[in-house]
Amino acid sequence: MDWLVIAAEGFIGVFERGAEQFMDFVTDIIPLLIMLLVAMNAIVQFVGQNRVEGLARKASGNIFSRYLLLPLLGGFFLLNPMTLSLGRFLPEVYKPGYYASASYSVHSMNGLFPHVNPAELFVFLGVAAGIETLGYETTELALRYFLVGIVTNMFRGWITDMCVRYVEKQQHVRLKRTLSNAEVEGGTSNG
Asked: What is the pTM of this model?
């Protein structure tokens, strides 16, 4: 009968661990995300809706600013996963490409800027430990990882744009290429 007690304790232990993880989210990540959302919305209000919309139009004008500059700035200042919220300011047609670029940019920035994605720093540190064992510098690794990452992420956004255009033609739809003030203000478009 000991195995039955052990099985029961193991079963409830899974839920206890899940509850602990949930409480960690409630006390750590959720308040941080809420504060970042409040700060971002406050900045938008202080700067002004028209200026933010104008910046979004300029940023969406080419793949370099849309898929290289915005993810870098968002990752550095807003961290992971809040950098994805910057997509809210882009026209619908560019949101898939922005997500493709920004969702990986926080990983490639991790070696130089650990604050961007601390939950996954162990990946870079694991590779860095191997590089150190071979007698190489980790700074060079971090720089190369960063440079290759931002270029690759830009291509991810660009290729996603091509896929969106293909699906638009295939489905006979056309996504919006501009933003209205109401969308930027209320965040009614998905981002």
From this structure: 0.70
